[in-house]
Amino acid sequence: MLTTPLAMKKVSLYMVDADAQRxxxxxxxxxxxxxxxxxxxxxxxxxxPATSFYRVYHDLExxxxxxxxxxxxxxxxxxxxSEIVHLDxxxxxxxxxxxxxxxxxxxxxxxxxxxxxxGAIRQLSNSLRKFSSLDLDLGRLRRRGRFLRIFVGxxxxxxxxxxxxxxxxxxxxxxxxxxxxxLDHLVVFGASEEDEDVQDVLDSADxxxxxxxxxxxxxxxxxxxxxxxxxxxADAVVAQLEQSVDAMLASExxxxxxxxxxxxxxxxxxxxxxxxxxxxxLVNLQGWVPARRVQQLRExxxxxxxxxxxxxxSDPEFDEFAEVPTLLPGxxxxxxxxxxxxxxxxPGYREVDPTGAFALSYILMFGMMFGDIGHGAVIxxxxxxxxxxxxxxxxxxxxxxxSSTVFGFIYGSLxxxxxxxxxxxxxxxxxxVLVLVLAVVWGAGFLLFANLLSIxxxxxxxxxxxxxxxGRGLAGLLFYLAACYAAYQAFAxxxxxxxxxxLVALPFASIVALQWRHSSGPxxxxxxxxxxxGLEHVISxxxxxxxxxxxxxxxxxxxxxxAAVFAIAGMLxxxxxVLTVILGNIFIIVLEGAIVAIQCLRLEYYEGFxxxxxxxxxxxxxxxxET
Amino acid sequence: MSRFSSHYLDTRLDIFxxxxxxxxxxxxxxxxxxxxIMAELAGPRPGREAFDLSRAGRxxxxxxxxxxxxxxxxxxxxxxSERRFFxxxxxxxxxxxxxxxxxxxxxxxAREEIEQQLVDLGSFTDLPLTRLLETDDPFEMLRxxxxxxxxxxxxxARRVYEEQGHDLFLLDATIDRVFFIDLTxxxxxxxxxxxxxxxxxxxxxxxRFNLLWLLRYRFAYGLSAAKSFYLLTATGxxxxxxxxxxxxxxxxxxxxxxxxxxxxxxxxxxLQVIADMETVMEYHALTVASDMLQRKSNLLAGCFAYxxxxxAEVRFLQALIKGKxxxxxxxxxxxxxxxxx
Lengths: 627, 341
What we know:
heterodimer, A: alpha+beta, Alpha-Beta Plaits, five-stranded antiparallel beta sheet, four-stranded antiparallel beta sheet, 20 helices, extended, B: mainly alpha, V-type ATP synthase subunit C fold, 2 domains, 0% strand
């Protein structure tokens, strides 16, 4: 039920530079090494020989990804190969892709401009529709008069006021006649002699003038049809440009396929660029490898590499524990629960992996709080239906549903009906006080177990003093046990004797003394800190224990909700009754089911994990082949 | 803002304001050896990484990083429109990166060269710097920028760049202009009292920008009065639209200076070079910001003033330290940081 992360070995590989890429490929194929940077004291190997390779790889990958954003047809997936990739191969391909990308980018820029001008024509066309009924000769707008110059077009509304003020410094006047979609449609007119200066200002204001063709002489309606023609032509240009990109990429498909293969093969070595150190043709790579795979790794490397290889294998040192990555064992059944544990944090290398205990207690508590044969069966069935799309959620739902069903038999509850089948024990409503007491006892057991795990983790991390004398250590455990005993005595006999008081006081004194030792600052500040921390320790134990009352509360709540549904159903006729019972049960399954699931998680995280689990582990991220 | 937050912020602002170096001390640094300057800058700041003098770029980045950390602490308690205003104002720092990227790409600089000039803005970073650096040509970068929060600024900058003979200096001015217009609009969403006090500080910055760019457009670039006026940003309180339009019509720098409102005219009289005028105007704007900070009339305006002062301090120190590391003569450094005007 309780395991620890897989044992790791530190593996240091010394090899010839020429073999480094081959070694990277082997390691990636095995997905067994989490590479790390060698410590600074290994200063003799102070060069990073894969840096230039990485740079070219990175440029190539970046260009490849950009181009693939335009490529419609998927490429054939690459196949693993032991053939190494040479820097000049990458460089040559990178040059090719750079050329290709510049051509694609150039078309993209043309497209952008085309879209911009098409957008402007569309806007003008829309505004012109407002005046299609007028009988005006718009050809006059194009002709430059001897004295008068007229501009008609649009500017972004944000620019209009400033433009109007700026034009007041000339002989021109701007008048907006229509506003829509953030644009002001305006007419600008004034003396011809200043029109170049004005055109300059209008350009800065993002003015888009109506372009009237030279041969054009006619009304707004005729101009409208010309604008429609321009839009049609612009759309055709856009389609042509898009086709040209497709054609360009289709003609380079082989280059892209080749780039994909080279990137796939070069990736493992490139990924090692920041950790692979070397000098004078010798390179060193260090990393963490699961102990059970070290032998296989050694053999595989010896078999694949062309030159001699020196391997150093060591156990993690005490001061390295924080750096060792965590790889959790675990069956397929527990994997979905690992996801929930990781949401809180990953166990450190020397910490207990709580997944098994978490899974068991979570499923048990769900059943206790939501015990119903029918509801449990529905949840399990829903899990079964989710199996293909969401396997992790499906496993949790099925186990929770089964637990709910089992507790349904214990409580004698079926779709909220409490007297249809005989309970194996009793319905919680029959003796709520007993159920509440049992919930507190369960909580106390839960907290004691968490405390034991905390002691184990502290000892594993070398914190012996805290493991024995601290609030999360043995003293904390004894304090809690003594407090539980004293509380029991108080309830049973109505008084707390000197023995109980002494049993509580002694471990508490140890906890306070340790806090005093580790506090710093002026005496008064230390007294305050220790007082508050001591008080917090007592309160957190009391509130933690009482927190488990919700286990009983929800089991009672489940019956109460069902009773409410039946009360409403009882007021209706037969069809209404059946419908209310069905809808009420769906409501209970969905709403109460979700609340209970969250409450169980809350108890696990805040009353369990926070007491023994730092969650500061680093995930094992092996070098692997990636497409 | 709650009363608690307001007291907290007041105290924080007091502490940060007390740590500002102040112009006279900054100028005095020019004559001091670098080690002494660094010792003074380090001061008693627990938890802060020591300055790394081994590389000039590193110290500059550290100065900026420390400033950003402090500003982040300062503006954290704000919420709603106040928070949005400050986060928008902080884009000023990122605009420096934007300009570096645009300049670098258009001048064909190598990726590493551009990367070295970029400032790490931590949580204030909005630009996808890595992807922008990986672009192969300036227009690809502009297209990518048009998908970011800076799309509006970039579109206008692109237009000016294409129309004005590919002048990068004008492109920078356009970026600043659009930023100030947007910032002024954001300030309007502040509560009226806050907007009034922030406006007092901002007004000086806007007047400085408008006056100096008006002079450049008219007399360095030879643009028409209308175009020069159009390219200005939102207006401040002393140089409103009417005054700027009047100034734009004038034919010489001397005429413009002679026609300025009293405080600006008195400060700029006799100056011939626009760069010197810029230094004087900036000093004036910072003096107003410093007064606002010391007077404690308004918390929000105080924080805004602090950001302006801190940014100017970092800029001064960066230039000073670079000069010292390159072993420049104090007179040259004095000129570079504008302390000789």
